[in-house]
Amino acid sequence: MSPDLLMLIGKATLDTLRMVAIAGFIGALIGLPIGIFLATSGRGELFPAPNVNRAVGLIVNATRSTPFIILVVAIIPFTRLVTGTSIGTKAAIVPLTIATIPFFARLVEAAIRDVDRGLIEAARAMGATPMQIVFKVLLAEARPALTLALTMTIVSLIGYSAMVGAVGGGGLGDLGIRYGYQRFMPDVMLIVVIVLIVLVQLVQSAGDRLARRFDKRSRKT
Amino acid sequence: MTVSTSPIETGDAAVVFDGVSKRFAASGQSAAFTALNDVSLTVGRGSITGVIGRSGAGKSTLIRLVNGLEKPTAGKVLVDGVDVGALDEAALRELRRSVGMIFQHFNLLSSRTVFGNVALPLEIAGMDRRAIDERVRPLLDLVGLADKHGRYPAELSGGQKQRIGIARALATEPKLLLSDEATSALDPETTQSVLELLKRINAELGLTVLLITHEMEVVKAVTSDVAVIDKGEIVERGHTFDVFTHPKHETTRALLSGLPGSKLPEAVARDIRPAAAAGDRVVVRLTFFGAAAERPLISRLIQSIGAEVNIIAGTIDEIGSKPYGSLVVAYGADPETSGKADRFFAENGLTVEVLGYVA
Ligand SMILES: Nc1ncnc2c1ncn2[C@@H]1O[C@H](COP(=O)(O)OP(=O)(O)OP(=O)(O)O)[C@@H](O)[C@H]1O
Ligand SMILES: [Mg+2]
After folding, report:
1. From the CA of B57, how far away is ligand 1's center (Å)?
2. Chain B interface, best mutation among A126, A133, A217, A220, by max B CB count within 10 A
3. Which fold is adopted by the domain B13-252?
């Protein structure tokens, strides 16, 4: 394989990592509070606002049920507004972020709902404010589950980031399509797939290990 | 807040329930439900007061009214003279910091160490690290778990977890401790040791304890006063000793019948009959209190009736720190023997209940 091609693969990998990192970071940052809100704003919960809860839930569901590739196209005007362009790595980050937010928010919601109700009760009995309950009880207790949620989100982001390649988004997916498919270079396709698999494996096992470290619920031998 | 919160004088009562009702509104499938109906009850300062009742009687609802986790729909709950139902959220949080609570399932944070769990209420109250450290260590000593301070709850036994729960409840130095079935998930031996700890805390710190349970054993072991709750109403209350020795309500009797020693052994229960046949022996339950519990009754009984006496079942125990005994014995049902026995019982001030006859 030519050094040029290796350069290309290296650059594509970096592009993918950059897209995943930025979209993952911003998406998680916005998705986290939305997830917390979804989990705590039902009737009789910490921040009761059942109507807003339902509205947010609806938007989240709508975004999640839109096929990603349609989402990419549908928000092109918005993407252009934010980044000034509709193609390339920078432009791809916008739909990736938008897709990450509801995905992560739902996982966060589930993780937080999983925290034992008795702990909320105990914290209330100690005189904790709702905010203290969120930070000292819910987030602390959900940390292993949140770590796995983030891992899962990054893994799907890697997949999505390969998809934006199809619409000129750059990164490994783009490389695979342009060289592997259009120029019929199966070895490039193979390398792209292998790099993606390795990335996913690395993220997954790092996430698993971290989650296990955070999890104090069972006796360690 | 605008509502007047000047405390009402409640004398030596730490908690007063004054005509309290709690009705849960209908929601979705479930109809409205009256969990508590016109409950009046006083918890004496420095006492260990028990509330006992069957599952669903309204015990948890009752205790949750004390720290405002529930609001009464009628009546008042006064804690140190303050009407809990009238407090706003901020005032309520302030109150909760001065009332400790322990739970059936401990409710410890799995992500925090033993130390971290006990420190939590202090962090919530905004205490600084150094002060927290100084407060937590002696508490861990008090509950006998100083060596476990860096452990996680998953690494502790049930009894140890509840001790941590108790240390946590005491962290803010409350004057009142609420216990919602704190020993119900523990085995009998561990239950006793946790109850001993509660007793010690009550004596050493002068802490008032309001304890709810469905187990008479628990009431008997630690409380000085007890109320029996059934279907949301208090059906009987008084000093624990009196309620145990002279139960009036059918629910109280039913709850008492679960105590060891209150049931006849299987073989006797099967053969016992209500009327005497020739040559039968009569089975009686003797109940004796105070000094009588410490005298050698049986040997004197045998001496005075001059016939053999079978001991079928018996317990000598303490209720509310007073000695109490219950003994089931059988002896000849013939008029001469029974006559002598009756005289002996009368002379010694024993309560006698004829249970039936056996061959
Ligand atoms: N939030 C609620 N909404 C509706 N009904 C409730 C609510 N909380 C309790 N109840 C009902 O009130 C009754 C009393 O409940 P409570 O939890 O006080 O019983 P308990 O005596 O503590 O029982 P257990 O020994 O099983 O804990 C029950 O019938 C219960 O279903
Ligand atoms: Mg209960």
Report:
1. 7
2. A126
3. Rossmann fold (3.40.50)
Q: How far is A141 from chain B (nearest CA, A)?
A: 6
pLDDT at B296 over 80: no
Chain A residue numbers with beta carbons less than 8 Å from the beta carbon of B101 are 122, 125
Domain boundaries, chain A: 3-214
Compute the mean pLDDT over every residue in chain A, rounded to the nearest whole number: 93
The CATH class of A3-214 is mainly alpha
Does the interface predicted TM-score (ipTM) exceed 0.95? no
Q: Is the dihedral of CA B107, B111, B115, B116 positive or negative?
A: negative
Which sequence spans correspond to the domains of chain B? Answer: 13-252, 266-358
> Between chain A and chain B, how many beta carbons pairs sit less than 8 Å apart?
63
pLDDT of residue A17: 95
Chain A residue nearest residue B27, CA to CA: A43
Among A125, A136, A216, beta carbon nearest to B152: A216
Which residue in B109, B110, B125 is closest to A127 by CB distance? B125
Cα–Cα distance for residue pair A210/B312, rounded to 1 Å: 63
Sheet arrangement for strand B208-213? B99-103, B176-180, B208-213, B48-53, B225-230, B233-239
The model carries a pTM of: 0.87
Superfamily of structural domain B266-358:
ACT domain (3.30.70.260)
Give yes or no for a contact between B101 and B67, defined as CB atoms under 8 angstroms apart: yes
